[in-house]
Design brief:
heterodimer, A: about 280 residues, alpha/beta, Rossmann fold, 2 domains, nine-stranded mixed sheet, two-stranded antiparallel sheet, 7 helices, 13 strands, B: about 425 residues, FAD/NAD(P)-binding domain, D-Amino Acid Oxidase, Chain A, domain 2, about 25% strand, binds flavin-adenine dinucleotide
Chain lengths: ~280, ~425
């Protein structure tokens, strides 16, 4: 099996600052991490590899420093890493990104046909959840989005059964391979690579592809030019005007504290009380 | 097959980086291990970078190292409750082509240093904690175990640049446990301000000019300790540190001490309107010369904070760390070239290099200071208080004659210290400790 996991390097949103004067996001000095949702995809991919054999490739589009993210993924146990990086990709929105990634996947697949493409549910810096489905559309793959668990995989038949979270319930879906899966958070627990994984990752050469290497022909579909999305305004949300209310807890039992909090909630949301106690 | 390297360096702080860089640059196979998420992620420093020590490792570091400002002005403040007495030294000579001191932020700086180490050919693995040293039947150190699966990794020498806690060395019985009177706990905050505000507030002309304020006296509430305030490009680092033993005795919470410092009328206006981003706490070894543990053995050597290499009097640490790291690196390179093993006897070369360097000479010079301050805590409050009372009475024009004022100043000195004999003894002790 050849499984490819698309990962993105993102700023650690817990450490982002908004400039006190200009209200713009200050990325400078903010550490980068692998998009947390992608790690669930990576772990799931490695589990399938460990059970059914084959290899896991991690693929990333980003600036040269995104190599750190790929090396980290290798240290977690991925087998191979490919970075597509090109100035002409700069400014890509989700449309242009999924175009570039889909093309690179096609190129990768020529060497070793791909059975499953994984992505995270969404990124924490864009929150669109569009890139996975975008890739699936372009490559004409079945897309299983918001997958919470993979129930089974039949290699001989080329079928996979997955559980996806849907509004109001859980859907169990069967798909033929190849397909694209976007993984939900909490689907699994990320492993720690062994010392050997870490040494291999530290020594590994990350394959770096330019647009041409990745097989991207139509540069008009890339970067800023291939991105119709327009950001109209960026702003820091105003803090809520309503101040938080404090509940004094000293000398009260947990039950009394609970009642006091509920009273406050119901006082503000009378409808809720009617619904809950009906 | 088990992995084997010429050297394993534990820690990617200034000491470990200098050691790994020196050895890798000379062609040795070097593995560096750090427990942080990335180099620098766990590291805390004020921070002033002393160029000389780094220059001796990476001569052209100014080309791409992330430096904040170079220091053109040094202030020394003695605080009491409401005032400060200070000396400022500013010189245009500090605007030289190759400035001597810089303010830095440790996280980006350590990352940069580490990228140089890797470019030199060392292998770095992060998020990996060394848990134990592996010894052979004769007790020689031959490798390390980590908190990851996959067993031991071996090397001809393990260099311990693991920082102040030195747990690995301690666990392996190579060094004793730290004493509370030999370590300070420092708390530090980074406050962000627009670049122009920083320059205006500190009267900085050049874009990269910076100011350093070292603070003594009331800032430590009677404990052995100091405060500091450094200007970065668009932030201010402010912190205070005191001996652990004193914190334990006075039960003053460290963050409260820092809050008091920040609220001091001389300090608050400098921070006004800033956004606090980072709060960190870290230990500083301050035992000085007499607290330095055994530094080498068969297959191991200690560098940096792990070896108590901090000059608390002059607030120097990272430069001693880099220097000890470089010296151990040079030693191992030399031994390898001569085909000699890294035995304790052969590592005497490192100890000799140290003895001949400023590191040991400075620490030796001030060897009496830690004990002096620990036993004479009043030195840090009595004199600053007396000084500010004297100055205040001198400057106030209130009908009292100048002679009366002089009398008041002397009386303040006596009152703060208790007796004239006390003052005389203090002067004698101080002179001896600084000799
Ligand atoms: C608040 C504060 C202000 C300071 N200001 C200054 C200043 O202005 N100028 C100055 O020169 N010095 C200053 N110092 C001192 C300076 O920070 C230290 O002397 C210096 O960092 C020591 O370097 P090191 O490499 O020995 O240790 P560290 O920088 O502490 O690095 C040790 C490294 O080892 C890693 N490590 C530890 N144990 C393990 C393990 N078991 N396995 C794997 N990795 C491990 C840690 O993650 C860390 O990265 C200051 C210190 C503090 C706390």
């Amino acid at each position: 099996m050849h499984i490819v996991v698309c990962i993105k390097q993102v700023p650690d949103s817990a450490q982002i600052r908004v400039h006190p004067v200009t209200n713009t996001i200050m990325r400078q000095g903010v550490p980068t991490i692998i998009n947390p949702y992608d790690l669930f995809a990576l772990e799931e991919a490695m589990r399938l590899r460990d059970e059914f054999g084959g290899r896991v490739t991690v693929l990333c589009m980003g600036p040269p420093m995104a190599e750190d993210a790929l090396r980290r993924a290798l240290g977690l146990g991925a087998d191979q890493a490919v970075l597509i990086t090109d100035r002409r990709f700069a400014g890509s929105d989700t449309l242009a990104t999924s175009f570039a990634l889909a093309t690179a996947l096609e190129t990768l697949g020529k060497e070793h046909p791909i059975d499953i493409v994984f992505t995270g549910k969404q990124t924490i810096d864009g929150d669109t959840a569009q890139v996975g489905p975008g890739i699936a559309c372009r490559l004409e793959l079945n897309q299983l989005t918001y997958v919470a668990a993979i129930d089974s995989l039949d290699k001989a038949k080329g079928e996979i059964v997955a559980r996806r979270r849907a509004e109001g319930g859980v859907q169990v879906l069967k798909s033929k391979l190849p397909c694209l899966i976007t993984m939900l958070e909490g689907a699994n627990t990320l492993r720690r690579g062994s010392v050997q994984d870490m040494l291999r990752a530290a020594r590994a050469k990350v394959t770096v592809w330019s647009a041409e290497d990745a097989g991207v022909g139509d540069l008009l579909k890339c970067g800023l030019r291939g991105s119709p999305t327009v950001v109209k305004k960026v702003f820091a949300p105003q803090p809520r005007e309503e101040p938080a209310e404090m509940v004094a807890v000293e000398g009260k039992t947990p039950a009394q504290i609970g009642d006091a909090i509920l009273d406050l909630v119901f006082a503000r949301q009378p409808k809720l009380e009617a619904e809950l106690t009906a | 097959m088990a992995e084997h390297f010429d050297a394993i360096v534990v820690g990617a702080g200034p000491s470990g980086n200098a050691a790994a860089y020196t050895m890798a640059k000379a062609g040795l196979s070097v593995l560096q291990i750090d427990r942080g998420e990335y180099p620098g992620s766990k590291n805390v420093q004020g921070a002033i970078l002393y160029a000389d020590a780094l220059e001796r490792v990476i001569p052209d570091f100014r080309e791409d190292a992330p430096l904040e400002r170079h220091v053109v002005e040094q202030r020394m403040w003695f605080l009491d409750e409401t005032s400060h007495t200070g000396a400022h030294y500013r010189s245009d000579d500090f605007n030289e082509a190759k400035p001597n001191r810089y303010t830095i932020l440790r996280a980006p700086f350590d990352k940069w240093f580490s990228s140089k180490v890797r470019e030199a050919g060392a292998i770095l693995i992060c998020e990996t904690t060394v848990t134990e040293l592996v010894k052979d039947a004769r007790g020689r150190v031959i490798g390390v175990l980590t908190d990851r699966e996959g067993g031991a990794i071996y090397a001809d020498i393990v260099v311990l640049g693991e920082g102040v806690n030195g747990l690995i060395g301690q666990r392996a019985g190579l060094r004793p446990e730290l004493k509370p009177a030999h370590v300070a706990l420092a708390v530090k905050e980074t406050h962000f301000l627009p670049e122009e505000t920083v320059r205006e507030r500190f009267n900085l002309q050049g874009e990269e000019d910076g100011v350093v304020i070292e603070v003594f006296g009331g800032v430590s509430s009677g404990m052995v300790g100091t405060g500091f305030l450094y200007t970065n490009r668009e932030s201010i680092s402010i912190g205070v540190g005191c001996l652990i033993s004193d914190f334990a005795e006075t039960r003053i919470p460290p963050y409260e001490l820092l809050d008091r410092f920040k609220a001091h009328p001389s300090v608050a206006p400098l921070l006004k309107g800033s956004e606090m981003k980072e709060y960190v706490a870290h230990l500083i070894p301050e035992g000085g010369y007499n607290a330095i543990p055994r530094l080498t053995g068969d297959g191991w050597a200690i560098i940096g904070d792990a070896g108590q290499f901090v000059n608390a009097v002059h607030r120097e640490g990272s430069n001693l760390a880099m220097t000890t790291g470089r010296l151990v690196g040079e030693t191992v390179v030399q031994l390898k070239a001569e085909g000699k093993p890294c035995t304790d006897a052969n590592l005497k070369l490192y100890r000799d290099k140290l003895a001949g360097s400023f590191v040991m000479k400075d620490l030796k010079k001030y060897r009496k200071v830690p004990a002096l301050l620990e036993k004479n805590k009043h030195l840090l409050t009595a004199y600053p208080n007396a000084m500010s009372q004297a100055l205040q009475s001198m400057l106030r024009v209130d009908g009292a004659s100048k002679r009366e004022k002089e009398g008041q100043a002397l009386a303040a000195l006596k009152k703060n210290r208790g007796s004239w004999a006390g003052v005389a003894t203090d002067m004698f002790k101080l002179a001896r400790a600084w000799r």
